[in-house]
Fold each of these.
Amino acid sequence: MPLWVLCLFIPLQIPTNHIILLVVLITLIFLVAAGFLLLYVAMYNKKKKKHKEEKIALKSVFENELLKTRLEIQEITLRHISQEIHDNFAQTLGLVKLTMSTADPHQPEQVGGALLRSKELVGQVIQDMRQLSHSLSPDYLEQQGLQALIAQQLQQLEKTNQYTAKLTVTGYPEQRNLQKEMVVLRIVQELLNNTVKHAKATIISIDMLYQQNGLTVTVKDNGIGFDPASLSTAAGNAGLGLINMHKRMELVEGTININSCPGNGTTVVISVT
Amino acid sequence: MLYPWAFTFELICLICAVVFLKNSTKVGYWHAFIYYMLFIVLLEGAGWSCWFIFHQKNHWLYNIELPVTCFFLAWVFGKELAPFGVSKRWGWLALLIFTTVFVYESLHTKLTDYNSWSATVRAVLFIVASGIYFYLFLKKTDYVILYKHPPFLLIAGIFFFYFISTGATIFIEELSKIYIAEGVPLRHVLFTFLNACLYGCFAYSFRCRYQQTI
């Protein structure tokens, strides 16, 4: 049997003062160790407090950002409505007024023609207003689905006879998140608006791909394209729209990739989980 | 004759338990602390009278305290470790180990001497349980104000008492002999300090618990 094992069973003849010293020493060492352990727990807990405070601060920043983005979206929507009223409804109704005022009441045939023309124009205004209302309403998105609203946007473009628009949908949504769908719809609307305004495109295609891990929407045109890097360094509002799109996608934990170069059209890929 | 400081601390702790926990819910261990502290005070009083007034050995009394404290504090640990997902089976295993050692030692000494091995095993089990609690407490992401968190104060007191008393527990026989032979009350001094820490933590945790429930 090893010597140290024997020592456990044989009472050691340690002098009294040594025992006292030993007990005092052991107690002091254990006291310091226990103190350190409790101190460590307390310090670590303090770190957790700091971490929690940082999380709250981050959340507050995020909420501020969310609010700002919501206000921006609201502003964009209002601008869109104002533009529609000015460019479309006011123009068409102005035309109705002009048609009615130029008709001579003493010539029934001319009045009849003017009324018919006015009826057509008013009908067109009603239809456009309905479409605008649908494109803005979240309830309509819930009822019709993202796919139907995007198809509607493309149909509207095709009606102008200036564009060939195509929508391809692969898969179907297993779980719907209206907030995310609304953000995607608004971005697609803004992209189409940009295409109409700046791209000088003739073909626009949208591919919607529903997968298990989310939705990917690819918006493609054959327009003049642009250099994304030049927009990010441009002064004023030139690149602001794209930055806002990025921000909005970040808020719904999504991504947006813009691929474009002058003369080669633009492809934008939006992904949300 | 040494002044019974431990008895004084226990009495103060009992008063705190009665004042702060009398209206606490009957479910859980907090209300039971009143009865536990009452038991401890009565036992300490009896032990002190036995030794200093009647000059009789009081080991058998303190041997009764061993399983009572062990089972009661095991209940406390069981309740506090359960939210962290620690199975109750570990608690029952610890109690089985203690009971085996206690029964074996009691049969061996016939309760005429203090069951120091059982006390050591109990101390080790409480230190391990406290260590597990601290570890799981650190792993938890939630933040709590430590000095106002009753279970933490309670377990910190238990850990402090049993961990620091390791030296005194190992040499308990020798320290008793030294006191009888040379009159050096080292054990008394150490345990007075440790009792002050333990019952101080208990009393303060009762107060914090009371503040949480009013």
Note: The mean pLDDT of chain B is 89.
Amino acid sequence: MALARVQDLTYRYPHSASPAVEGISLELRAGELVCLLGPSGSGKSTLLRALAGLVPHFHGGQFAGRVEVDGVDTRRARPSELAGTVATVFQDPEDQVVFTGVEHEVAFGLENVGVPPDEIHGRALEALEALGAGHLAGRRTDELSAGELQRVCVASALALRPRLLLLDEPTSQLDAEAAEGLLDLLTRLGCAAVISEQRPALPLGRCDRVLFMDGGRLLLDADRADGVSWLADKRTAYLAHEPLIEEGEPDGEVLCSVAGAAYAYGSRRVAVPDLEIRRGEVVSLIGGNGSGKTTLAKLAAGLLEPTEGTVFRHGRASYLSQDPGRYLVAERVDEEVALGVAGDLRRARRALALADLAGFDGRHPRDLSSGERERLGLAAVLVTEPDLLVLDEPTRGVDPDRKLELAALLRAQAAERGTLVVTHDLVFAADVADRVLSSTSTRDPVHA
Amino acid sequence: MSPVPAAAVLAALAAAALLADRTISVAVVATVLLALCLRVPRRRRWPYLVGTLGSAAVLFVGSPLAARYGGIVYWEGPSVPVVGRLDVTSEELAEALFQSLRFAAVGLAFAAYALLLDQDRLLLAGGRLRRSVLAVALATRLLPTLERDASGFVEALRGRGVAVEGLRGRARLLSPLVAGSLERSLNLAESMEARGFGRPGRTRAPQPAWTPLDRVALAGAVLVVAGGALWL
């Protein structure tokens, strides 16, 4: 018997001209792992919200069709009533946190669904430990890295022991090892899980079924073998492929070199690996959560000055923050991009076209989807035509087709500058870079 | 100390500052609260201290100019339409000092509440008032969240060569900060609903029992309020 059944679902958000999802029908069986793929804005998140009952209860809008979870019609049960049976992890971990303490955060859902008080502590710790985050139990949520916070959010969902787990890009902030660990855990849990991902290699290697959405419609609903062969035929970007470029020997002028450097955030010292970037080369920096990649990127871009060691910089550097929400200062998209070039709207529009946002000039930046916001941030730094371009997690929330386009764009412009790309996405790192550098720095107290 | 008696002590100190009618008493209360706030690392405490002490300083400087009483004139300035002639008297200065100390004491009590108390345990102790306590706890987190967002905007602008300088440059960040807060609050509300918030039959994780120190602190809070009303 199906655990969840979606029948001819069509849904339109309030004030939206077109439906976010249209004519969706599918069944989810108990215990199966389903990989949900599709480009940005294809309706994946809306489908997950419909399965959680948040569409239409929380968002309003026009809802047609029927969604049943564990025999309950979601139009007749509020999302809070489905909680426990269903658990959802949303895209942005920072926007989900209620408490300041990690253990209280994980316990929040357990209290809401009425778990007996003497079980709450044990279940919260068990969920954290299952994700390798037991050591975070006593920490404050506002002191965690993005990857650590994402693990706490997933633990909050797992602690509920749901029958249906809905995960919206749960590995976007996780390093490769942590992402692999999460996917392995999902295969052992025994509950049904739908995982929407923009780094599809990991879930595709473990899932039972593959769904593919585009333009609000479900184009594919197949078992893994058929799904992979459909992707190989229609959407090759979603499958593992050989790196697009060969490693080469750089010979341009040195634009940045970092030697023996460390930076102290208050009493916390972060040592970073040595680095040299020359004009004409693209360097990818990979490494675990909290290994100092962002610190190294900011040192290279001149946003931080080292407290130890030396950093040499030549020419102008621009830095793309890993949070696309930081590029929402102006009231119009073109004005936002023009901020970096003293209001020159012509240059701004050229940069928008490069980032595939031509025609978005007059839109308000907050009206853009998460993938579009990421491209807006990219346009905002590309427009400055820097000698050194530093991109911190530029593929977060970006679909595989767009990643290939971004890699091609950075390669096409590689000769003009030096480029440093900080990323957890190993496929993208290999696609874009001449060299891949691994960050294995250490953190320790300044006075240790 | 448990957060409930600690919150009661802070509220009592603020109440005592409002009830006391001697400047020295209010100054002592404000100093005690300032000393508490200074125990917090600088990067967390500065928005609260700058906001509170800066506002108190503006009150101290500005209110004598607007007031119109007292006989010993220290300074006489030009005549301003509507307000009249500006002057500063010794009585106005004394009253301004008293009121700004009161303001500082109340502000510092809130700062100590926000910086030192375990908001989670306070929320969990909320019992039937849980929804109200949750609203207060989330509102309390607004200031550090806004501060973090503002730093993020400034850093992203610096990353593309835009310097944020002066009052005008920072004022430009106000609108995106407010819009960002609204967006985040909607996302948080959605996440809370998905996690069962508001559903009947909720339980509560066991909390540590009150210690003798907690009971003494609660009794002390009552005494501080009484002292403020009767003797200070």
Note: The mean pLDDT of chain A is 90.
